[in-house]
């Protein structure tokens, strides 16, 4: 449900409690709106783009509240006021992300995406730049101005690093394209950079798009050999998952396997040490 508060006209700069200094708003120029972040709130101001504004409002109305979808505070005039957080892509650029954080973020974003799909919403622009991490370390999706809802055509088409799955030259926006892009996001969470970033970082925007699209169409993907989420990522890229429910089942299985403590005899080094010790004690014992 959208909440309207006619007395809240602006997002103001505020004084930091622990420093006593004025915290200035952060301005971000998006493709369809200007975003002003101040403290715990972000004001997304649309100007001259009714279709995206209406689409985003309709998606929020459909989704309501979910832990892994950014929280809507209220809408007034052409401004959508949301919960603020740190951009996931910017956090990943800083590096030094623990395995526990990565797993928590991947799991949370997977739950959020399944919730969207269950409510007949296709995001259509999934990437680490369209996710935030809240103050209590929860990963959330945002930016629904280009999303597809029910049978309405999507107004967005992903970014250059998660542009298209390889099955078709120009596949229609669907749950399958969202899942493919989710794999790209998981790859970025674990490696710190999107697929083919090093190969394309000095290219123009069009050059990046052309290069990555060509790689995907030829089924050339970055190596995931040493990644913990390699099976999830390749499952997304190869079209193994028909739904986010299937993907979440795999994620849950991975968590269970990691949480189970293995007995000592599963570790070769332990078996070898015990065998050598026994042989020293009983030289004639044939082990």
Description:
This protein is an alpha+beta fold. It has 2 domains: 33-83, 2-Layer Sandwich (Phosphorylase Kinase, domain 1), CATH 3.30.200; 87-261, Transferase(Phosphotransferase) domain 1 (Transferase(Phosphotransferase), domain 1), CATH 1.10.510.10. The protein is built from 9 helices and 12 strands. It has helices at 50-63, 88-94, 99-118, 175-191, 197-200, 205-217, 230-237, 244-259, 268-281; strands at 14-15, 22-23, 26-29, 33-38, 41-46, 72-76, 79-83, 86-87, 121-122, 131-133, 139-141, 148-149. The strands form 4 sheets. A 5-stranded antiparallel sheet has the order 3-4-5-7-6, with helices on one face. A 3-stranded antiparallel sheet has the order 8-10-11. It has a two-stranded antiparallel sheet with strand order 1-2. A hairpin with a 2-residue loop joins strand 4 and strand 5 (41-46). Keywords: ATP-binding, Nucleotide-binding. It comes from Exophiala oligosperma. GO terms for molecular function: ATP binding; protein kinase activity.
Let me know the CATH homologous superfamily of the largest domain.
Transferase(Phosphotransferase) domain 1
What does the largest sheet look like? Answer: 5 strands, antiparallel
CATH architecture of the largest domain: Orthogonal Bundle
Cα radius of gyration in angstroms: 23 Å
- As a percent range, the share of strand residues is 5-15%
Number of strands: 12
The number of distinct helices, counting runs of at least 4 residues, comes to 9
The N- to C-terminal Cα distance equals: 70 Å
What is the 3D shape?
globular
Strand neighbour order, sheet with most strands: 3-4-5-7-6
Average predicted confidence as pLDDT: 83
Low-confidence stretches: 1-22, 264-270
Q: Helix coverage percent of residues? A: 25-40%
**Helix-strand makeup class:** alpha+beta
CATH class of the largest domain: Mainly Alpha
Number of domains: 2
**Order of H and E elements:** EEEEEHEEEHHEEEEHHHHHH
For this structure, the CATH topology of the largest domain is Transferase(Phosphotransferase), domain 1
InterPro entries: Kinase-like_dom_sf, Non-receptor_tyrosine_kinases, Prot_kinase_dom
GO molecular function, one term: ATP binding
Domain Protein kinase: 1-265
Keywords: ATP-binding, Nucleotide-binding
């Amino acid at each position: 449900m959208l909440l309207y508060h006619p007395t809240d006209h602006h997002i103001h700069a505020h004084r930091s409690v622990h420093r006593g200094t004025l915290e200035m708003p952060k301005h971000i120029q998006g493709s369809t709106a200007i975003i002003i972040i101040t403290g715990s709130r972000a004001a997304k101001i649309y100007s001259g783009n009714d279709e995206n504004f209406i689409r985003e409002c309709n998606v929020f109305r459909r989704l309501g509240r979910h832990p892994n979808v950014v929280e809507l505070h209220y809408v007034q005039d052409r401004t959508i006021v949301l919960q603020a957080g740190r951009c996931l892509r910017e956090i990943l650029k800083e590096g030094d992300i623990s395995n526990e954080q990565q797993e928590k973020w991947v799991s949370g974003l997977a739950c959020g995406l399944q919730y969207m799909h269950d409510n007949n919403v296709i995001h259509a622009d999934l990437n680490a730049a369209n996710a935030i991490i809240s103050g209590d370390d929860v990963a959330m999706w945002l930016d629904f101005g280009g999303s597809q809802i029910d049978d309405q055509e999507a107004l967005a088409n992903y970014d250059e690093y998660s542009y298209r799955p390889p099955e078709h030259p120009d596949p229609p926006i669907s749950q399958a394209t969202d899942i493919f892009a989710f794999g790209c996001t998981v790859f970025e969470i674990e490696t710190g950079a999107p697929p083919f970033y090093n190969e394309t970082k000095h290219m123009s925007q069009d050059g990046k798009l052309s290069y990555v699209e060509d790689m995907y169409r030829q089924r050339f993907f970055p190596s995931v050999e040493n990644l913990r989420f390699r099976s999830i990522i390749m499952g997304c890229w190869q079209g193994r998952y028909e739904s986010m429910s299937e993907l979440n089942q795999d994620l849950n299985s991975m968590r269970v396997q990691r949480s189970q403590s293995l007995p000592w005899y599963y570790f070769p080094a332990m078996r070898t040490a015990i065998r050598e010790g026994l042989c020293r004690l009983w030289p004639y014992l044939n082990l």
